[in-house]
Amino acid sequence: MIQHGLALLVQPHTAWQRVAQLPSASFNKLALFPVIMALLPAVAWYYGTSRIGWTVGSSEDAIRLTESSAFEISVLFYFVMICSIAIIGYFIHWMSDTYGANSSLTKGIVIAGLTCSPLFLTGLVGFYPLLWVDLLIGVVALSWATYLLYLGIPIVMNIPEERGFLFSSAIIAIALVIFVGILVVTIILWEYGFAPEFTDHSL
Question: Each residue of 129-150: pLDDT tens digit?
Fold first, then answer.
């Protein structure tokens, strides 16, 4: 299961071809890939924000979340990742007929989950939350994930590259809408008392 995600980081074209040749039963197992891998960034950021902390400007005092607040946010972060992948996977399946592809909900979720492999792995930077470095690495991981989507859709869906490009672009648009929706919900939750709680050393 995990070897497919790791292979996408070094041999993406070959890895997608192997995924495309898998039987249906294997897709059912691969659907668990994001469920397992999403634990990596959730655990990393829980530890980093509650134990290590981060600094702002020239201040030497590290800002940390309380353990209870970090735990709540990490759990929500985990479920948001899983739900987002499931929604994107649903839309991959839902739009497959439009682009002349044969798909299933499981295949859509597998494509979405494997595409996020770089994001899951780079989420480990949360163990040491140096924000500018984490942001830079995050941009690189997001770029690689976008490349994987554009590469993988035509291969796994067995459609021409031109049609796959349009398909992938539509999925990117949906992902952006989901991202904006997450930001809006986050702001609303913060307004209703679910804002992060900081330790006594916070600014």
Answer: 888 888 899 999 999 999 999 9
